[in-house]
Amino acid sequence: MPEQVHLSSKFPELDSSEPAIGGSRTRWRDTEELIESGASFATPALGCILSSSSTEDADLTAWTQACFPGSIFWTFRDLLAVSDAVPIEFLSMVFVCGDDLPGLYRHFRNLRGIIGDIPKMNVVRQAGPRDIAQALAAGFDDVFDISEMQMPEARARAEAILRRYRLNDGADHAPVTSEAMARRLTRTDLRRRELALLTLLIEQSKKVLSVPDISTALSGDRLGMSPNAVRVLVCHLRKKLVPGVQIKSHSGRGYSISLSSVKKLKP
Description:
By secondary structure, the chain is of the alpha/beta class. It has two domains: 7-150, 3-Layer(aba) Sandwich (Rossmann fold); 170-264, Winged helix-like DNA-binding domain superfamily/Winged helix DNA-binding domain (Arc Repressor Mutant, subunit A, Orthogonal Bundle), CATH 1.10.10.10. It has ten helices and seven strands. The strands form two sheets. The protein has a five-stranded parallel sheet, sandwiched between helices. A two-stranded antiparallel ribbon has the order 6-7. The longest helix is centred in the middle third of the chain and has 19 residues, at 151-169.
């Protein structure tokens, strides 16, 4: 049995009074114990923290648990062993910890079919631009560098990514905010970020979204978007909208969308 780690002593933000999944503060558990404790899967968690082992990259996993205390920890070997017993709806987000990027990506590819289409974050230390680019190319939605990123920023980024995923998941139940409806408001095919921006504006149609708000919502790739990049994106999107749909500029405040023609469109 791996040694129990008391993270609250290192990260005061981690509430030591909150029981871990299965009622134990021990997050690092042997494969056999995980298989035998299938009942613990009934307890929902914010996310699943993955690492190559229970001892390597302990500072990365500790930081992630302190930032997202509802999450549980598994090694790749453990999750592969119990994958048949884990309902996909149990996992809302996956944090993959480690600096050995080639090794992590091999594990990550093996798990893609198990964890499904949910947000995936890479937690690293001192990542350079090339490391971030490799992580994004491997399929991660964001990269959290614990040497630079503060926990409030990490939480905000995770929440923004979850909102985008949930927006897509709810397409069949909310046609006005769906990507399908967004596509019907344009005359030509949209690029990925153009579609994401239009969907965001439709979802928040009663609000004025600031440039920083838009940048945060669309920059799950961790590279971010400059204010000028947001303005250029809005400019390109405007040219593709059908008549009667307008993206309005609010001086010093941001952008909103006018959906005067939406009622004429069938969902």
